[in-house]
């Protein structure tokens, strides 16, 4: 077990010790004796040389939770052949449901059905619905579309305790989530055929290069009319697990081709197994625990699922945290605590209302790109600025209508990225004016004023925001819980916290101020093709998946508090009022 550096003793802990001494010496008052005890809470510590300090209260809680009889019983069940088989079947049955970002309603509907019929939840515990609404949030629509989250609640004991605190009637909650949307297919298949084929190919053969090559693979997993996997010879082949890619190649392993195999359904499906175990074994947290499959993480999803959960208003750039989440755990990462933010603009240059020889959208878009190319980022201008980048991610034009040579419109997608909001704002302030400047330059080239019928016009089609966050040297309580739970479960024990940054659902809670940490839950021998039409994976050691689920349970229960099977209680690691950057509207 790693020795925790730079631990600072909790003021709450010290105060409680003094109170005990005063009472023993006769120094306590009657009012002191009748007040409820102040809970001892661990404190945020420092990260030194990449290693987070871990408060002894967190370390002690991790040891007790991992040894708890119910947690041990869950691990034992998951490690049985039946448990491993159930997880594989669930993964395959869910991942084949086409779920493009912002069109996840079919996936959410299947998850809601299983929550009620298979995973032990009742209707009052399912917090989301088919309409995409989330009672209690002040953000329901993102980019003009509903948000298809799938969330359940495990009710804790805190709300019924004396002097329980709430924010606008919302008692504290710990969130653990993973996304249910995929990049491919980009277009939702018809209702008559909502499923994606799951094709199998020996690892010894070359990876496909085209959709046609993928479609030519005849070996597939089969499913019955209820969507349940058929256990035939192909199934037996796909279910074989391997320790790594070398072992899989030598042992007859296959590629399981299906979009979303690893990003993120191998994690999300395991998360729902965790939810099932919560209910089956009647785990009793102190704070409420929410388990969510979230929509809108990929592509132009704009983190819609998390923006709904955290009441994040992208126009204001702030989160109200209306449901009062006090800690956040993402199940689609590798322990990253810094998050790259981005601004994304989709701008459409439109042909003049009165066609003729004159301004055209192609040249207006080209003029804009030329201006953008001359812009220097803050990190190019100053050595002390964090790395800031931008790119013209896509430039495309509509084809002329039949019998015409007029191009109706051209679309430009521009992406700006940085770890800090201030540098993002700086590069945005330089780039955003070029959209109009390019249009104006093209109109002026032909002697036309902006806004007249003979001029090119511009329209903003879409704006995307992923808020940035830099953690610094603080070991927040979510990080401590995740770090120590990995050691307790003996899995994924990193030597240091990653120093780089990534872009995940976690951007939203971290930017809102909620302690945030992430991990992976699934187990694969090898995966490739993330976000591609040819995404594939090969099944990994199921015992690793069990340990990762154990780790997640342990970390979540450290944060939420937990009633151990022996009757004792682990107090929540964090206070009952979550952080926010905006009050509820």
From TrEMBL:
This is Peptidase M20. It comes from the Bacteria. Residues 1-19 form the signal peptide. Keywords: Signal.
């Amino acid at each position: 077990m790693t020795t925790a550096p730079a631990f600072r003793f909790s003021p709450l802990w010290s105060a409680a010790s003094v109170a005990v001494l005063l009472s023993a010496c006769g120094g306590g008052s009657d009012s002191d004796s009748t007040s409820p005890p102040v809970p001892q809470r661990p404190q945020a510590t420092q990260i030194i040389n990449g290693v987070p300090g871990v408060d002894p209260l967190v370390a002690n809680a991790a040891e007790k939770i991992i040894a708890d009889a119910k947690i041990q019983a869950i691990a034992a069940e998951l490690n049985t052949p039946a448990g491993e088989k159930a997880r594989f079947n669930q993964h395959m049955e869910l991942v084949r449901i086409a779920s493009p970002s912002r069109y996840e309603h079919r996936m959410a509907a299947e998850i809601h059905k299983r929550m009620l019929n298979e995973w032990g939840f009742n209707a009052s515990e399912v917090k989301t619905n088919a309409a995409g609404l989330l009672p209690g949030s002040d953000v329901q629509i993102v980019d003009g579309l509903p948000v298809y989250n799938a969330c359940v609640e495990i009710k804790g004991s805190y709300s019924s305790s004396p002097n329980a605190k709430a924010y606008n009637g919302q008692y504290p909650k710990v969130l653990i989530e993973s996304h249910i949307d995929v990049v491919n297919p980009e277009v939702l298949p018809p209702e008559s055929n909502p499923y994606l084929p799951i094709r199998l190919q020996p690892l010894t053969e070359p990876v496909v290069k085209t959709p046609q090559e993928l479609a030519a693979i005849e070996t597939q997993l089969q499913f019955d009319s209820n969507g349940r996997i058929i256990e035939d010879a192909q199934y037996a082949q796909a279910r074989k697990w391997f320790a790594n890619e070398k072992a899989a190649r030598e042992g007859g392993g296959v590629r399981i081709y299906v979009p979303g195999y690893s990003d993120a359904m191998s994690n999300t499906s395991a998360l729902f197994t965790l939810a099932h175990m919560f209910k089956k074994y009647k785990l009793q947290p102190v704070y409420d625990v929410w388990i969510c499959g979230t929509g809108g993480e990929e592509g132009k999803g704009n983190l819609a699922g998390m923006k709904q959960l955290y009441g994040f208003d992208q126009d204001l750039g702030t989160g109200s945290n209306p449901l009062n989440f006090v800690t956040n755990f993402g199940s689609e990462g590798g322990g990253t605590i810094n998050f790259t933010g981005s601004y994304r603009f989709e701008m459409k240059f439109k042909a003049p209302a009165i066609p003729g020889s004159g301004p055209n959208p192609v040249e207006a878009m080209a003029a804009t790109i030329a201006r953008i190319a001359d812009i220097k980022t803050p990190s190019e201008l100053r050595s002390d600025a964090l790395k800031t980048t931008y790119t013209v991610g896509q430039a495309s034009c509509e084809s002329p209508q039949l019998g015409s040579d007029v191009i109706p419109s051209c679309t430009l997608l521009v992406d700006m990225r940085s770890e800090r909001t201030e540098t993002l704002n700086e590069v945005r302030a330089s780039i955003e004016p070029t959209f109009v400047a390019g249009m104006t330059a093209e109109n002026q080239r032909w002697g036309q004023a902006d806004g007249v019928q003979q001029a090119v016009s511009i329209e903003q089609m879409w704006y995307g925001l992923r808020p940035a966050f830099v953690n610094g040297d603080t070991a927040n309580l979510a990080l401590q819980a995740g770090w120590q739970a990995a050691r307790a479960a003996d899995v994924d024990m990193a030597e240091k916290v990653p120093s780089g940054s990534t872009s995940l659902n976690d951007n939203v809670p971290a930017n809102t101020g909620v302690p945030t940490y992430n991990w992976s839950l699934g187990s694969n021998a090898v995966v490739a093709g993330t976000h591609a039409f040819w995404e594939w994976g090969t099944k990994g050691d199921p015992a690793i998946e069990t340990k990762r689920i154990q780790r997640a349970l342990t970390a979540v229960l450290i944060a939420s508090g937990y009633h151990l099977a022996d009757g004792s209680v682990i107090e929540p690691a964090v206070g009952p009022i979550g952080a926010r950057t905006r009050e509820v509207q």
